[in-house]
Amino acid sequence: MGRRQLIAWGWQILVCAGAAALAFLFIHDAEENLATRHIATGFHFLTQTAPIPIGETPIAYTPSVSTYGRAFLIGVLNTLKVAIPGCVVATLWGTLVGLARLSRITLLARLAAAYVQGLRNIPLLLQLFFWYGLAQVLPPPRQAFRLLPGVFLSNRGLVVPVLEGAGTLLVALLVLAAARLAAARLVPVNQRGARGAALRWGPGLVLALLALFALHPSFHLEAPQLRGFNFQGGMVLSPEYVALFTGLVLYTASYVAEIVRGGLLAIPRGQWEAGRALGFSEGEVLRLVILPQTLRIVIPPMISQYLNLVKNSSLAVAIGYQDLASITETILNQTGQAIEAIALMMAVYLGISLSVSFALNLFDARLKRERG
Amino acid sequence: MAPAPSRPARPLASARERRAWLISASVTALLVLLIAWVAWRFLAWAVWHAVWSVPAGPDGAPNTDACRAALGEGACWAVIGEKYRFILFGFYPYAEQWRPALVVLLFIGLFAASLFRRFWHPSLFVVWAGALVFSAALMWGGFAGLPFVPADQWGGLPITLFLATVGLALAFPLAILAALARASRGLPLLKGLSILYIELIRGVPLISLLFMASVMLPLFLPPGIEIAKLLRAQIAFILFAGAYLAEVVRAGLAALPKGQYEAASALGLSYWQSMRHVILPQALRHTVPMLVNTFVGFFKDTSLVLVIGIYDVMTTARTAILEPRWQGFGIEVYLFLAVIYFAFCYSMAGASRRLESRSATPLAATEEPA
C-alpha cells in the first residue's frame, strides 16, 4: 500500500469514527433524557389503543378501541389515497399543459406558459391554503354545485357516486392482470400460440366477470341523494382531501408540463418531417412516432416528480388532512415517543422512494441493454 | 411500418392548412372570451367592489363591517393595509421595524448583484459574509443606541431570507464535500457515508426533518443544553439543502471531460490542488443555473417552518388572519403573499434562464428539492 493510500484510509477511518462517536453520544444522551422524562422506549405503543379521532378511514377504525398501529396504517393508506390518483391526474393534466405550451396557437401557448410560471414560483403550502380557503367558502350541501350528474361540490367536500362491490371487482381485475402478466412472462416467446391464447382469453374473462357482477344484486351504482342538510350515499371526499388533491395535482402538473415539453423538443425535427412524409396526419405522427421516443426521455424525471408528489403530500399536516405525517405527529404528541414515531414515518417514505428508484434503475438498465 | 397512403401531397397540405387555421382561430377566439370573462370577474372583485380601508371603531380598533358586507362580492384590501407591517416583520417592535426593512433591502440588493456574471468575484463572498454579520447585528441591536431585540421577536420576511440564505451558504461546503466523496474512487467508507446521507435526506419529506429538528433533536442533546428552535430549523435546512445541492454538484463533476482530471494529475497537482484550481471552478460554473433553480425551490420550502411554529412570512400571514375581526379574509392575504414569493422566485428563475442561455454547455436537467 502506497503512502497516499495510507493517508486516504486514515482520513476515512477518522471521519467514520467521528460519525460513530457522535451517534453514540446522541444515543447516550437520548437514553438519559428519556429516563428523566419517563418516556417509554420501543414499539410497544403500536399495540396500545389510540384515542385519535380520524375523519377518513379506508379501513375499519374506532377511536379508543383500535390501536396506534392501525392508526398509523390508516395514515399510510390516506397518503396513498391522495398520492396515487394524484400522480395519474397530474400526468394527464401536465401532459396537456406541456402540449399546449408547444401549440402553434400563440395565445394557448402563452396561457400555458403563464400557468407553469405562476404555479412553479409560489410555494405549494400557500397554494394549499388558498384551495382550502376556497373549499371552506363553498355553499352548503343544499346549494351544492352539481359538476356532473351525481357529483356534488359543497362545503362538506365532494360527493361522487360509488360502485357497490367495486372493491371485489378491482381485486378480480388485479388478479386477472397479474395472471396475464405472469402468463406473458412464463410462456416462452417462441411458443407464440400459447402466449397468444393467453392474451386472447384475457379480455373474454374480463367481460365474463363484468357480466357476473352486473347480474349480481350487490353490484350497483349508488348515487348520492340530498336528504335534509347533507348527502346520503355515494362516496364523500372531505374538503381537506379535495384541497390537497387539487393543490398537489395543479402544482405537480406545472413540472410535468416542462418535462413533457423538454422531451418533445429533444426529438429532432426530422422525425416529424419523416412522419409527415409517410403521409401520417399530425396526430398520428405524434402518437406513433414522437411519443414512443419521448417516453424514454421523460420517464426518469417523471418518476422523480411522482416521488416529489408523495413527499409533498406530507403538507397535508398544515390543512388537517390525516395523512401519514399528520397521524405521526398526533401519535408522537400523545405518546411522547418522538424517536420511534418519526423513525417509522421516515422508514415508510424512504421505503417508497428507494423501491421506486430501484425499479427505475432496473428499467434504465434494461433500456440501455435493449438499445445497446 | 404502415404503408404510405397514395394521396397527392399538395391539395392535402393546403386543406390541412385551412383546417389548422380554422381550429387556431376558433380556439383563440374562445380563449379571448374566457380570459375576458375571468378578468371581468376578477376586476369586479378586486377593484370595483373592493373595500380599500375601514374606519376605526369606538374602541380604536378597525371596524370590519364594511368588509363583512362585501364578503364574496368584493375583496377586503383593508386587511393588507392594517396587517402588512405584521406580515412582513412579525412581532419585531413597531418603532424599530426600519431595521428588518433595511435588512430585507440589503438582501434583495445582494441577490440581484449575485445573479450577474459581472459581479462574480471572490470578494462577493466576503461582501455576503459581511452583510450576514451586519444584518444579524442590526436585528439584535444593543449597540449605538439601538434597543436590543431578542431573536424570538424576529419574524416575517427577514426570517424567510435568513433561513434560505444562511441555509444555502452553509449547505454549500457540505454539498461539495458530499459530492466529492460520492464521486470519489478509492474511498469506499466516505463514499458509503455520503451515499447514505444523500439518499436518506432525499428520500424523506422536509416536514419529517423539521419534526426531527423540533422534537427529536432536543432529546439527543446532553441535559441542560438547549438550542433555540430557529437554529434547530436552520440545521434541518442545511442538512436538507446539502443533500440536494450535492447531487447538483455531482452532475457538474460528471459533466466535466475526463481529460481535465487527467491534465490536473499530469501537472503533478495533489487531489485538493487539482480540485481547488482545476475541477471545481469549472464544474461549479456550469452548474450555476441548476444551483439557482435549487435555491428557488429551497426558498419556497422555507414556508414549511409553519408546521413547527417559526414565524416566517407564511406563519405571520396565517397569524394575521387568526384575529376574529379579520377571519374570512384569507384569500386577500394569500394573494398578497403569493405576489411576494412570486417576485422573488420568478426573478431568480429568470436570471437562471439568462445564465443558462449564455453558458457554453447548458445543463438542461434541473431538479428542485421537495
Core attributes:
heterodimer; A: 372 residues; alpha+beta; MetI-like fold; 2 domains; 4-stranded antiparallel β-sheet; two-stranded antiparallel ribbon; 12 helices; 8 strands; B: 370 residues; mainly alpha; 13 helices
Care to describe what's here?
The complex is a heterodimer of chains A (372) and B (370). With 372 residues, chain A is α+β, with helices and mostly antiparallel strands. Chain A has 2 domains: 46-161 and 237-371, MetI-like fold; 170-215. Chain A has 12 helices and 8 strands. Chain A has helices at residues 3-36, 68-101, 106-120, 124-136, 166-186, 192-215, 239-265, 269-277, 282-312, 316-319, 324-335, 338-371, and strands at residues 145-148, 151-154, 157-160, 162-163, 221-222, 225-227, 230-232, 235-237. Chain A has a 4-stranded antiparallel sheet with strand order 1-2-3-8. Chain A has a two-stranded antiparallel ribbon with strand order 4-5. In chain A, strand 6 and strand 7 (230-232) form a beta hairpin. The relative contact order of chain A is 0.13. By secondary structure, chain B is mainly alpha-helical. Chain B folds into 2 domains: 24-83, no CATH class; 155-358, MetI-like (MetI-like fold), CATH 1.10.3720. Chain B has helices at 9-48, 65-70, 78-89, 98-114, 122-140, 157-183, 188-203, 206-220, 229-255, 258-266, 271-301, 313-320, 330-358. In chain B, helix 10 (258-266) runs antiparallel to helix 11, helix 11 packs antiparallel against helix 13 (330-358) and helix 12 runs antiparallel to helix 13 (330-358). The interface between A and B is large, with 67 and 65 residues.
